[in-house]
Amino acid sequence: MKYLIRFLSSALLTCLVLSCATNSDQWPRSGVYQGTAIFGFEHSDFTPEGSREKWWLSGAVNEITDRMGGAQPTLQNPVFVALEGELSERGHHGHLGQYRREPRVVRVLGIKQAGSEAKK
Fold first, then answer.
1. Three-class SS of residue 93?
2. How far apart (Å, rounded) are the C-alpha atoms in residues 94 and 88?
3. For position 28, what pLDDT does the model report?
4. What would the pLDDT profile of 59-80 be if each residue is shown by its tens digit?
5. Which residues 6+ apart lie within 8 Å of 51 measured at CB?
6. Nearest Cα to 106, choosing from 36, 46, 57, 50?
7. For labelling alongside 115, which of 22, 28, 47, 64 has CA 20 to 30 A away?
8. CA distance 29 to 31
9. Residue-level pLDDT at 52
10. Sign of the CA dihedral 72, 42, 59, 28?
11. How far apart are CA 66 and CA 15, in angstroms?
12. Complete DSSP assignment for 32-67
């Protein structure tokens, strides 16, 4: 009985360690990311398509924010964007570390009002 408990404990611990070590993430370290973005005071939210994670957008996002601000904004929150960039490791990113990842945008490939068919 004592050996059975040790064996089961050992097996359970091994499974736990392997599940933590496995990268269940399917996000490439660099490439094209599409999803919904919301910008505002201390917000740079990006939710990748097919996910509920929130990422902090950084890098070359001026093309998006310029179209959302100023005297005559052509877009408003939320927007659907296609971005080329490099993705950080998991961690605490952005304002108060509340974002799981941080894609550094290299280039904006497309912007449209979320829920619309109008493209850039």
1. strand
2. 12
3. 84
4. 999 888 888 887 778 888 999 9
5. 35
6. 57
7. 28
8. 7
9. 92
10. negative
11. 49
12. EEEEEEEEETTEEEEEETT----EE-EES-HHHHHH
What residues are paired with 56 via a beta bridge? 45
How much is the pTM?
A: 0.69
Given a cut of 60, whether residue 23 has pLDDT beyond it is: no
Q: How many CB atoms lie within 10 A of CB 78?
A: 16
| Residue 102 in tokens | 């941080």
Distance CA 113, CA 68 (A): 10
Q: Give the angle 63-58-72 at the CA atoms, nearest 5°.
A: 30
d(C-alpha 105, C-alpha 94), whole Å: 14
Contact 58, 103 (CB under 8 A): yes
Strands 79-87 and 30-40: antiparallel
Q: If residue 105 lies in a helix (H) or strand (E), which one and from where to where?
A: strand 103-113
* Tokens representing residue 27 in the block: 């996000």
> Does the CA dihedral 58-37-77-115 come out positive or negative?
positive
**Residue 90 token pair:** 């998991």
Q: Which tokens sit at 58?
A: 């950084």
